[in-house]
C-alpha cells in the first residue's frame, strides 16, 4: 500500500518503520526541520526493543510537499500532535486525491471535525492505538513493548478499504482490530489522558505517585463523570465506574513509574500540550450542551497557565 505518514515524531516513526519493514511504500512528511534533516542524512534510526535499526524512508519538509504533487497515496496517516493537525493538513491537503483515505490515530477528541474539512466522510477512518513511542533526538525513536490499533471507517461506505488497512497493519505486526464502536474507544482513551496526563503534568509526578495521593480517587471520579456526561450527549455511553477501574489500574501497572506524554511535552520540553482536545474539548462541548464541567474547565486553564509560565 502507498502510505504517507504526516508527522514523523515518535508514533509516526514507529508506524513508518513497521509498515516499511512489511513491504509498504512509506513516505514521511514533517514540519520539524532538524528531524527532517536527520532522517534525510542518516535514515530513520530507532532502538526497536533494544535492537538498533535504520530505515531509508523518504521524508519531505512540510513546506515542500509540492514536490509530491503528483503522488497518489492510498492512505494518509495523521500522527501530528492534536494542536498541529489543522495547520498541518492545510499544507498537505493537496495530497488528498479522490481515492485517498485518511486515518487519524491521534489522542483526543474532535479530530473528525477538523479532518472533514480536507477529506470526505466516506474516506475518513478513526482509530486509537495502545502502541507507545518516544524520541531520543531528531530522527531517533525509542520503540519498546507491544500494542494494538483499533480502527473503524467514519461512514459505512469506507468499510471495505478499512478492512484492507486492517490486513496491511496485521502484516506489519501492528495488531489491528476492526472496531464496531471506535467513538466509544476514543472517549474511553480520552478519559485516561484527561486524568493521568493532566494531573501528572500539573502535579509533576509519575502515575504511581499520583495514585498514592489520597485525592486521586475523587479527582479521577469527578473528571470521568464530566467526560461521561458530555459523551452521553453525543450518544456515547461510558460507564463511569468501569472507566474509573480502567484508569486506576495504571497506578499499579508495570508502567506506573512512567511520566505521561503531556508531562514530557510540558514539564520536560516546554512544548504546547494537547489539553484543548482532551479536558478542553469536554469543557467546550459542555458549554455548547449546557453541561457543567468545572473540573475540566479548571484543569484546562491551569495547563494553559503552566504552558505560559514555562514558555516565557
Ligand atoms: P511527537 O511530539 O513525537 O510528534 C508530533 C510532531 O511534533 C511531529 O511532527 C514531530 O516531528 C514534532 N516534534 C516532536 N518533537 C519536537 C520538538 N522537540 N520540536 C519540534 N517539533 C517536534 O508526538 P507523538 O508522540 O508521535 O504523538 C502523536 C499523536 O499520537 C498524539 O496525538 C499523541 O497523543 C498520540 N499518541 C502518542 C503515543 C506515544 O506513546 N507517543 C501513544 C499513543 C498516541
UniProtKB/TrEMBL annotation:
Catalytic reaction list: (R)-pantoate + NADP(+) = 2-dehydropantoate + NADPH + H(+)
GO molecular-function terms, A-Z: 2-dehydropantoate 2-reductase activity; NADP binding
Annotated Ketopantoate reductase N-terminal domain residues: 3-154
Alphabetic keyword roster: NADP, Oxidoreductase, Pantothenate biosynthesis
Residues covered by the Ketopantoate reductase C-terminal domain: 181-307
Pfam families given in the database record: ApbA, ApbA_C
Group of enzyme by EC: oxidoreductase
Enzyme Commission code(s) on record: 1.1.1.169
GO cellular component entries: cytoplasm
Pathway(s) where this gene product acts: Cofactor biosynthesis; (R)-pantothenate biosynthesis; (R)-pantoate from 3-methyl-2-oxobutanoate: step 2/2
A biological-process GO annotation: pantothenate biosynthetic process
Taxonomic superkingdom: Bacteria
Keyword NADP carried by entry: yes
Family annotation (PANTHER family): 2-DEHYDROPANTOATE 2-REDUCTASE, 2-DEHYDROPANTOATE 2-REDUCTASE-RELATED
Annotated function: Catalyzes the NADPH-dependent reduction of ketopantoate into pantoic acid.
Family: Belongs to the ketopantoate reductase family.
UniProt-recorded name of the protein: 2-dehydropantoate 2-reductase
Taxonomic lineage of the native organism: Bacteria, Bacillati, Bacillota, Bacilli, Lactobacillales
Amino acid at each position: 500500500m502507498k502510505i504517507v505518514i504526516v508527522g514523523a515524531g515518535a508514533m509516526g516513526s514507529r508506524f513508518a518503520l513497521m509498515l516499511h519493514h512489511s513491504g509498504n511504500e512509506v513516505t514521511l512528511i514533517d514540519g520539524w526541520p532538524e528531524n527532517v534533516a536527520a532522517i534525510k542524512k542518516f535514515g530513520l534510526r530507532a532502538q526497536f526493543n533494544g535492537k538498533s535499526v535504520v530505515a531509508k524512508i523518504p521524508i519531505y519538509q512540510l513546506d515542500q510537499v509540492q514536490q509530491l504533487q503528483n503522488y497518489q497515496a492510498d492512505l494518509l496517516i495523521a500522527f501530528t500532535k492534536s494542536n498541529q493537525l489543522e495547520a498541518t493538513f492545510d499544507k498537505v491537503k493537496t495530497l488528498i486525491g479522490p481515492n485517498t483515505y485518511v486515518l487519524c490515530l491521534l489522542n483526543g477528541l474532535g479530530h473528525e471535525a477538523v479532518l472533514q474539512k480536507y477529506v470526505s466522510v466516506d474516506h475518513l477512518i478513526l482509530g486509537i492505538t495502545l502502541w507507545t513511542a518516544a524520541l531520543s533526538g531528531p530522527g531517533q525513536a525509542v520503540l519498546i513493548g507491544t500494542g494494538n490499533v483499533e480502527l473503524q471507517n467514519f461512514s459505512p461506505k469506507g468499510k471495505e478499504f478499512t478492512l484492507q488497512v486492517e490486513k496491511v497493519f496485521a502484516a506489519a505486526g501492528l495488531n489491528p482490530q476492526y472496531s464496531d464502536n471506535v467513538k466509544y474507544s476514543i472517549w474511553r482513551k480520552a478519559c485516561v489522558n484527561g486524568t493521568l496526563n493532566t494531573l501528572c503534568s500539573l502535579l509533576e509526578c509519575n502515575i504511581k505517585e499520583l495514585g498514592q495521593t489520597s485525592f486521586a480517587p475523587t479527582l479521577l471520579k469527578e473528571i470521568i463523570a464530566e467526560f461521561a456526561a458530555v459523551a452521553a450527549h453525543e450518544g456515547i455511553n461510558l460507564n463511569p465506574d468501569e472507566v474509573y477501574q480502567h484508569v486506576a489500574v495504571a497506578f499499579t501497572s508495570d508502567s506506573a513509574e512512567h511520566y505521561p506524554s503531556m508531562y514530557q511535552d510540558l514539564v520536560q520540553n516546554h512544548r504546547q500540550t494537547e489539553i484543548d482536545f482532551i479536558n478542553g474539548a469536554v469543557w467546550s462541548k459542555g458549554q455548547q450542551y449546557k453541561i457543567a464541567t468545572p473540573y475540566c474547565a479548571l484543569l484546562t486553564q491551569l495547563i494553559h497557565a503552566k504552558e505560559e509560565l514555562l514558555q516565557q
